[in-house]
Amino acid sequence: MVAFQQKVVDLIKETNIIKKINFNKFVFYFLFGLKSQIGQFKINIDAKCLVLSQYPGAEIKGLGGLIAQHPKNFEVLCLTNGSGLLGCDPVESACIKKQQFYDVMKITRIKGYKIFDIDTKLLKNHYSTFKKIDISDADYIFVPNVYDNNVDTIALLKHFKQILKDKDIKENLKILMYESDYSLCTLDYYADISPIIETKKKLLRMYYPEDKFQGYTDKLIGINAFRAIQYNCNYVEAFMSFSVEEFLKIPLI
User: Fold this and answer.
1) In sequence order, what are the residues at sequence separation of 6 or more whose Cβ sits closer than 8 angstroms to the Cβ of residue 128?
2) pTM above the 0.90 mark?
3) Which residue range forms the structural domain that includes residue 124?
């Protein structure tokens, strides 16, 4: 069975059929033998959570509510500077998005945050910068969905895989994928953000103001409402959980 699984994985990598499979149970729960453990995500008072964001705003789309509920437990690192804003010069765009990031982080009163001065779509060229990230103290590391269809997401995950191999980490480190541009098809954990949903909306509107992105925040919040249907609450953020060993098995495009 193991040999058969490896042949299928090799075929997927060689043919790029992974793009069509699109992150479903067949890949992650049959080929890699992962086990779903649906339950509420609860943060211990001393837990250290590191969020890796592929662009300014992705962190709030995916887990802005959870961050706002537990700011002292979180550190956010945004790996690109937002220089790809449509209709703007790259320098002007980066300036706008970086300021938005700083303003959002200050409002959340988060423990620590940083935005890297790496232009949109160029993260793949900056492993030398990425490898300086300290992950040794993290209990949970949040990363974007592997099939967000974003070149910086793939670069982030490839770089992250490498530092997992090269750096010291906690024995029980858990990696959680969050939803930013595309939804996860299988869930392991959810966080009830109903009590703080208005705060998440406010943070999203700081990145996506209504005068330029009319209705965008409501559309983003829609997935939080949809996810909540099965958990008997109003709004949830959802995650897929991996051990380090499981995460390193995931094929990347």
Assistant:
1) none
2) no
3) 34-249
Residues 175, 244: contact at Cβ < 8 Å? yes
Q: Is residue 17 one of the residues assigned to a domain? A: no
Please check whether residue 34 is in contact with residue 188, taking contact to mean a CB–CB distance below 8 angstroms. Answer: no
8 Å CB contact between 62 and 151: no
Would residue 138 count as lying in a domain? yes
Q: To 5 degrees, how large is the angle CA 204–CA 206–CA 185?
A: 20
H/E/C letters for each residue in 150-206? CHHHHHHHHHHHHHHHHCCCCCCCEEEEECCCCCCCCCCEEEECHHHHHHHHHHHHH
Q: Over the stretch 68-110, which tens digit does the pLDDT of each residue have?
A: 999 999 999 999 999 988 888 999 999 999 999 999 999 999 9
Strand partners, 177: 143, 240
Q: How many angstroms separate the CA atoms of 114 and 128, rounded?
A: 17
CATH code for the domain of 81 = 3.40.50.10320
- Taking the alpha carbons of 156, 160, 161, 163 in that order, is the dihedral positive or negative? positive
